[in-house]
Structures
1.
Amino acid sequence: MDLKKLTLMPHGLEVLLPVGSPLTELEYETSRRVIPFGCQSGACGACVIEVLDGFESLGEMDPEEADFLEDLGRADGNYRLACQCRLISAATVRVADDQ
Ligand code: FES
């Protein structure tokens, strides 16, 4: 199985996930919920993350996700909805509202 590394800041937590995994798979790899999730379908906005490294590693952003991020005021910068990302290669992210 081809695994890719997802690093979560500011904890520095590193998790290996199978290529193509939604970031919601983190639920099964860690003992705590490091990225908040709600609907897991791109509709609630609970899972906004800032991509610190590897923006291209999280798959294509579809128009619905882009529109919703714009509605949330997160169109500028490296924001994604964690539930809509698919890990293609190594990436480093943090929860958008973490200090
Ligand atoms: S969990 Fe609701 S938008 Fe991602």
2.
Amino acid sequence: MKKRPYIICLMMTSVDGKILSAKWGNSPRIKSLLINFEKAHDTFKVGAWIVGRTTMEKDFTKGLKPILKKGHGEKSRLDFIADAKAKSFAIAIDAHAKLGWKKPLMHGDHVITILTEKVPDAYLAHLKDIGVSYIFAGKKEIDLRIALEKLYSLFGIRKLMLEGGGHINGSFLNEGLIDEYHQLILPIADGSIETSTVFEIQPKVKKGGATLLKLKQVKKIANDVVWLKYKIGN
Ligand SMILES: NC(=O)c1ccc[n+]([C@@H]2O[C@H](COP(=O)([O-])OP(=O)(O)OC[C@H]3O[C@@H](n4cnc5c(N)ncnc54)[C@H](OP(=O)(O)O)[C@@H]3O)[C@@H](O)[C@H]2O)c1
């Protein structure tokens, strides 16, 4: 494999490993616990973060539908770097162009979206108009390794925060693409059967058994939150 960014996965969970914080209510106590995620994120000082399509849609673009440009021409399937000088990046994996974008920044970070070649020309035309960068990482399905190699070579991204949800984390884990895992365990018991955990991998694609981790640090931080740090791989 060519060079790729070092991947640090950061997640916040209940004691039973569940990740859907929206289900935990919005009492002041819960809200004060949830703040720990952003605080922890900031301590890494890594200028690039990546999330799955669902997380980007639910938590960031707030359900905005894809915008298609009218009267566009045919668009090549060449990668588009809209801002070569950007220093921080918000990255989405969106194989089927389901995310809507109105501006090229998310929380001040330059947006890069990772697409397959089968997305509509009109979608690409709109992204170009508004200055969202895009890269292609497969014809019909995303090849995560290609995506990561391009983030490294085209944007100079050396370290990347992988921040959920469970399905994108599961895809990275399944491909052996996580180097460090950090888990903030909140003093909450979720207890629901149907909600996602940190790593969700479809049985039909799952490779091998469980992944072994090496514990590097255990810290108790504010409000009874435990911060675990693991290394994965060699
Ligand atoms: N507690 C935490 O720390 C934390 C952090 C982040 C998110 N969350 C929560 O997690 C929830 C979302 O989690 P989720 O597991 O449902 O969704 P997700 O992982 O955010 O996104 C899943 C989607 O990403 C795309 N995807 C995943 N693997 C892919 C691959 N290998 N190739 C191409 N596309 C791939 C697919 O999009 P398509 O369907 O378009 O193909 C898939 O449906 C949200 O409610 C969010 O709030 C919690």
